[in-house]
Amino acid sequence: MRSTQERNYRDTVFDQFRLDGMTALVTGAGPGLGFSIARAFAAAGAAVALCARSQEKVDAAVKAIEDDGGTAVGVVADMSRPEDIDRLVGAARSRLGPVQILFHNAASHAGQSLEGLQTDPLSLTVQDWQSQFEVNLLAAYLLAQRVVPDMKAKGYGSIINTTAVAAFRPKPNIGSIAYAATKAGLTMMTRQLAKECGPEVRANMICPGSLSPTGEMRDIWAPSMKGIPLGRVGRSSEAVGAALLLASPASSYTTGTTIFVDGGRVSGVS
C-alpha cells in the first residue's frame, strides 16, 4: 500500500498540469491544431474563449467542449481586423474573466500554394504580404497588448504562439516566402515578449510540423517525408502535450523557447 505522502506527491505532480480557474483564449480554433488545443485546455479545467472565421467552425468547437463537460465561448473573428481582436478579448473578459493563457494559432497563407504546386516566390502581391503580416505577426502583438496587463494583475500569464517549420527551414517553390518571414518574425517577437513581460508572464512557441486532424497526408507534405525521422504525418492531438505543458504551472521556469512537434524534421536529427 502506498503511503499518504507518496499519494500526495503523485497528485502534486499531475496537479501542475491543471488549469482550473483560468481563462484561456485560442485563435484559429477550427478543425485541427487550434481545436485540439482548445479542447485540451477545457479538459484541464480552463474556461476557453475561442475564435474561427466561420460560425459553423465556432459552433462545432464550442459544442465539443461543452459535450466534454467544459466551458467555452465562441466568437466569429478575423485576426487581420483589430476590431475583431478587441471584440474577442472583450467577450473572453466579460463572460469568462481575465485571460491568463493565450494560444495564437490563426494564420494566413495568402499567395502560397497549399497543394504544393510550383509558385514563383516573387509573385506575391502587396495584399498577400499584408494579409500574412496582419494575421501571423501583428495579431499576435495586438493580442498580447490587450491581455498582458490582466496577466500581470493576476500574477500569472502564459503566451503560446504557433510558429512553423518554414521559419527555420526555407521551403522553396511554393510561394511561402511571406509565410516564412512572418513566422520567423513571430518567433523573435515571442522571445522579446518573454524578455519584457516577465516575471509574471511567460511567452513560448510551439512549432508544429506536418499535422492534420487525423494524420492524413497532403500533397504539399510529400516531398518532406524523407526528412522526418518518425516517417509519418502527425495528428493535431499530438501537440496537446506541448501546449498543456507551456500553458500550465508545470513549465513555470520555461520562457522564450520553442517546442518542436515536427517528428524530428527541424529539431536536429533529420
UniProtKB/TrEMBL annotation:
<dbReference type="InterPro" id="IPR002347">
    <property type="entry name" value="SDR_fam"/>
</dbReference>
<keyword id="KW-0058">Aromatic hydrocarbons catabolism</keyword>
<dbReference type="InterPro" id="IPR036291">
    <property type="entry name" value="NAD(P)-bd_dom_sf"/>
</dbReference>
<dbReference type="Pfam" id="PF13561">
    <property type="entry name" value="adh_short_C2"/>
</dbReference>
<keyword id="KW-0560">Oxidoreductase</keyword>
<keyword id="KW-0520">NAD</keyword>
<dbReference type="InterPro" id="IPR020904">
    <property type="entry name" value="Sc_DH/Rdtase_CS"/>
</dbReference>
<protein>
    <submittedName>
        <fullName>SDR family oxidoreductase</fullName>
    </submittedName>
</protein>
<comment type="similarity">
    <text>Belongs to the short-chain dehydrogenases/reductases (SDR) family.</text>
</comment>
